Amino acid sequence: MKPPSPTRFGYAIFLGCLTNATFLSLISANPEAVGFVFSTDTRIGAQAGYFRHYVPSENYAANIAFTGDVDASNPGTVSVTHLNDCQRRINYYRVQAGLPGDIIFTATKNAKSQWSALIMSNEGNLSHQPAIDFPGNASVMADKAAHGGNGWGNQAAGVGNLSIGTYGPGAVSSFMVDGGFGNEAAGHRRWLLNPAASEMGMGSIPSQGSYWESSSIWVIGDFKPPSAATTKIVPWPNAGYIPYSQVPNPVNTVNEDGLMRWSCAYTKGNFSAATVAMTRTTGAGAPAAVAVTKEPYSSGVGDNSIVWKINNGGSLVVPTPTQDISYNIVVAGISLTSGSPPIGFVASGSTYQYTYTVTTFDESSLTTPMTVTGPANPLVGITSAYVLNQLPESSGVRVRVGSLSSSSWTEGAEDPAPSTIIDGPTAYTLRQGSPGPVAAGSKAFHLAIPSLDAPLQSFTIARDFIPSASSRLQFKNRFRFLTTATSLNVEASTNGGTQWKRIWSRNGFTDSGSSSSWETSFQTVDSATALDAYAGKIVRLRFTLSVPSTGPAFEDVSTNSGAYIDAITVTNAQDFNTISTTELAPSATTYQFTPPVAGTYSLVSQMELGDTQWFAYGPLTTVTAVAPAAIQTWRNAHFGSALNSGISSDTVDADLDGLPNLVEFAFGLNPASAQATSANLPTVTRSGSNLIFSFKPDASATGLTYTVQMSPTMQAGSWTPVPHSIAPGTGVYSASVPISGPRLMLRLQVSNPTGL
Q1: Residues 736, 741, 742, 744: is their CA dihedral positive or negative?
Q2: pLDDT digits 0-9 by tens, 241-296
Q3: Does one domain contain both 184 and 330?
Q4: Does residue 366 lie within any of the structural domains?
Q5: Is the pTM of this model over 0.70?
């Protein structure tokens, strides 16, 4: 087992920039790593920025392609992709803080920083002057021999943010937290968020055998000339919206001392006598005071700053999907070293006060869920448009159509392999029988830890189901060798498995290597509340076995170790049976649905941000598809719409031939082509002393009513109905009226009684 990481960080304190010549060899600008912008004025803007520019750099470990060897004092190289990940992470934080994301890396600074990181990893310690502090270190000596003087690594260490226990973008994020003893000035953060910074360099060493991973970021030197852009107020966390995961808080603070440091910087500010007051507002509640302690004042580390720590982690409440948390900060007693006060500084006696609000939010949730709205009764075979409440920040949208069925199901591990189980483990068999324990049947699911470096051990139940308020989750579990640092978990996903949240957990109970510590029977879980938060939502479940990367854990996949799970049951739920999934353009605001057959369908939509994160499906829209009336099919064929409105409405004469659409339908005419004559249209003939009014509707024009009317004057109110009959077998309607008076007019009234 690898011992816990010391997670130590150093910071460089300098009073001015260096005089080294500017290096001209620049890393080519990648638009995904430099020059991007996003807004923190809105929640969705900050959320989109996080998923577009932070999350893509999370794959840095897989991207590093390190070619060196710490034991051989070879710094090697890292991939351009990894360097882009690092650059993107730095620029993400700068844009989040209200600064331009314009930091570039130079090839020379990268190379020197790589040597610096090598020395720290080789020594297992940090120093800003390793040539002096680690004179006998093999990598220091190799560096001196290769580059003369004190070597490249010594130079980069003197102007760098140094870390051991983290590397690459992970180190950048640790520097932004700046927890732990010795970092009271939050110096790493101040250099990374220095408005005058323009060029940096990055060195990354991944873990190798007994050598810890390390990073060195060249942060000092080659600054931008003084300007309004380099004299900005820079709070961290920033004024505006910020994902909770990026706030120094109990979740991501270094565990050495649990300090949660916030800061506010201004290059021309003197914060030596300044004070800080904070309040917290959750939802619609009243503001609550947050206890803080000001850290010792330290100037000369990046911009002048005030740094304070939150005394009680409970003051930084982890958000829920329905609550954002706002922190109002008042920094008072600020004096100026020069110049006029910036916008935002308010005079208070002889000093200034700066007030701002930080709003943290759960980046995994949307405040406005995606909805699908449209006809409650779409027509079979005819396309209906459904409106999506799309957001401008969206990078994608999909719509799923499915059917619902009541279901209470049980998943076991029996043969043949269940098609509803997605097998996660690869180093061992998921479904185990004897000599492993089994609760029901002949096999149970088995999760174990192959090694601390192995991916998360899990299996997923590939059922999309919708819990109700009365749904229950039940299963049996039993542990063999399983340390107290290891936990069996049940997790739920509302976005198809992209993101998971824990809904149940149980830790191992023994660090002993004796089989006498094994559980002798299965434990039964019967929870009526585990699924409460997911009632009415489409959910998937998975079981995971997790352990911290530092262990300890039993790295063994035999039947002697791990957790056994069996007889997994969910009751009082509905299955969502997917019929189709449609990916739409990011800008799409409508979905075209064509029901194949009559029946009930459920439509649900999902939005993506940043090309990386699909969010939870929104609420279901349930519709009942019905067979179209004949006139609706006719309209759709001729107008592309079945609606009795607009150009396709009954009373409109679309082709201007004197016949309204309803009459065109009744007599099988083309409403898009003027055709006012047809043998089937009404005719009037004389037979003796009678007028005969005849017409023959199209056989497919069902659902209409026909009324023959007569009038001697054609005046309103003078028309009266005339009885008519249908000649058997001909489909010809006729009405006979006696001729009386000087004149008599006849007409045919066609009506659509359903209004469809």
Answers
A1: negative
A2: 999 999 998 776 644 445 789 999 999 999 999 999 999 998 888 999 999 999 99
A3: yes
A4: no
A5: yes
